[in-house]
Specification:
The chain is of the alpha+beta class and about 130 residues long. Helices cover about 20% and strands about 20% of the residues. It has helices spanning about 25-30, 40-45, 115-125, and strands spanning about 10-15, 50, 55, 70-75, 85-90, 95-100. It has a 4-stranded antiparallel sheet with strand order 1-4-2-3. Helix 1 (about 25-30) crosses helix 2. The two termini are about 15 Å apart.
């Protein structure tokens, strides 16, 4: 396993639920996404990394149900993960793969690119792929 380069970052998108009505943007994000502190959310908002209805918004902006919220997570390094796997079976409808422990199947949490889905897709695009 080698250290990964920075990934491309990710844009999280959601349609605001009824529970967001009347909340401030900062309050909503701080409560819903507790992986970051209110200070970190304020910095993201102030940097223009949070959009409401496609526009940068202030942290004290009141929210309404149904509005579009997009926030950008800047690039980060995925944790290391194994990259080997074995194709056990393949036909038009089914693909059976044996993967080692430690590589997530799909992106989630801290993993965006060090996943079986991304590694296998890159392999399929390569002419010298060794599975």
């Amino acid at each position: 396993m080698i250290e990964s380069p920075l990934n491309q970052g990710f844009r999280y998108r959601e349609r605001l639920p009824g529970s967001a009505r009347g909340r401030t943007l900062l309050g909503y994000l701080s409560e819903r996404y507790r992986h970051s502190s209110a200070l970190e959310w304020r910095q993201r908002i102030d940097s223009g990394l949070v959009l409401v209805n496609g526009l940068p918004a202030r942290s004290d902006r009141g929210l309404a149900a149904g509005e579009s919220l997009v926030w950008t997570r800047p690039p980060w390094r995925d944790p290391p993960a194994p990259t080997s796997y074995a194709v056990l079976y393949e036909d038009e409808d089914v693909l059976g793969i044996a993967k080692p422990s430690g590589i997530p199947t799909i992106p989630g949490g801290s993993y965006l690119e060090n996943t079986l889905l991304v590694v296998a897709n890159e392999c399929l695009r390569s002419t010298d792929c060794i599975k």
